[in-house]
Amino acid sequence: SQELEQSPQSLIVQEGKNLTINCTSSKTLYGLYWYKQKYGEGLIFLMMLQKGGEEKSHEKITAKLDEKKQQSSLHITASQPSHAGIYLCGAPHGSGNTGKLIFGQGTTLQVKP
Amino acid sequence: DGGITQSPKYLFRKEGQNVTLSCEQNLNHDAMYWYRQDPGQGLRLIYYSQIVNDFQKGDIAEGYSVSREKKESFPLTVTSAQKNPTAFYLCASTSIRRGLSNEKLFFGSGTQLSVL
Prior knowledge:
The complex is a heterodimer.
Chain A: E1 4-7, E2 10-14, E3 19-25, E4 32-37, E5 43-49, E6 55-58, E7 61-65, E8 71-76, E9 85-92, E10 101-103, E11 107-112
Parallel strand pairs in A: 2-11
Antiparallel strand pairs in A: 1-3, 3-8, 4-5, 4-9, 6-7, 7-8, 9-10, 9-11
Chain B: E1 4-7, E2 10-13, E3 19-25, E4 31-37, E5 43-51, E6 54-57, E7 64-66, E8 76-78, E9 87-94, E10 106-107, E11 111-115
């Protein structure tokens, strides 16, 4: 079965610093979703990547999917306290369009003012 | 406003008791999902439904039951057979368009279930 591994598991950065979170799949990805979660709340959609080599940006967050479609990275530039939370990557369960996603274990980000 | 509503926000279960978590959506989505989240772990799929009156087991369905009598509603019952029910439960929905690329999941705000 497919598994997603995120690294690091937790991260503490000083405000203004850049950071990168990685998501590695045990199998080829048919899509990759990034979500953000505040503790005790639901998941907020950030970005979706589908094509090898694809890169998307929103405000100060950039996500990339590698050419081989087995790894994705999420990069935050000039981090702010509002970026703090849990970041999760998710991928479709197999190639069919069932809507089911499997998730990585999450990366907890703290941003020190 | 369109979205997914989960209730209650906090729920406590006594030993031997069944409890039901509510999930309602007004996004006109066909598919709905229940996930369980434990501290330091990702989300694990409990049950999902792609159409009314039909649902399938996910990876950790034992000790749980669901129903899908209406398109808008997908309640989850945590039965007494679930020996470790303490977790954060998330409901999600999406539209399923056959032959097209995957759509993103929309999530509710979650229910924290604890055992007394």
